[in-house]
Amino acid sequence: MLGVRIFASPTLLVDAGDFRGVYMDLHAAGTAGTRIFVQDIGPDGLISRNDNADSWEEAGKTVTFDGQWKKGKSSEAEYDRAFADADERYAKMLSLLVTQLKGLKAKPGS
């Protein structure tokens, strides 16, 4: 699972061993309503109809991508739009993260 958060004051938190600790820090940090939290279960990006239920949380609203849009009280079209938007934004966030990590790796002594 990969959790990525974007904060008003961006912070990069990477810990190769303490996954639970990183998850807890990410889930508790930031100002409510100003953060985005993505749960990407598995190394396959967001999947719109997934038994493992990837999810997107923003502004206090969570969309679970399990294919059950009625349970989320939305239409299939609204669900598909929410997924397309989340998927596009998530790809951009991951691209920014990779760029930052490459920059850290390129610095002497890192």
Tag the structure with descriptive keywords.
110 residues; alpha+beta; four-stranded antiparallel beta sheet; 2 helices
Characterise this structure.
- The protein is of the alpha+beta class and 110 residues long.
- It contains 2 helices and 4 strands.
- It has one domain.
- The chain has a 4-stranded antiparallel β-sheet with strand order 1-2-3-4, with helices on both faces.
- Strand 2 and strand 3 form a beta hairpin.
- The longest helix has 31 residues.
- It starts with a strand and ends with a helix.
- About 6% of the residues have low confidence.
Number of H/I helices: 2
Could you spell the SSE succession in H and E letters? EHEEEH
Main sheet record: 4 strands, antiparallel
Number of strands: 4
The radius of gyration over CA amounts to 15 Å
Q: What distance lies between the first and last C-alpha atoms, to the nearest angstrom?
A: 25 Å
Q: How many domain modules?
A: 1
Strand content: 15-25%
- Mean pLDDT score: 78
Spatial order of the strands in the main sheet? 1-2-3-4
Shape: globular
Structural class: alpha+beta
- Stretches where pLDDT is under 50 for at least 5 consecutive residues are 5-11
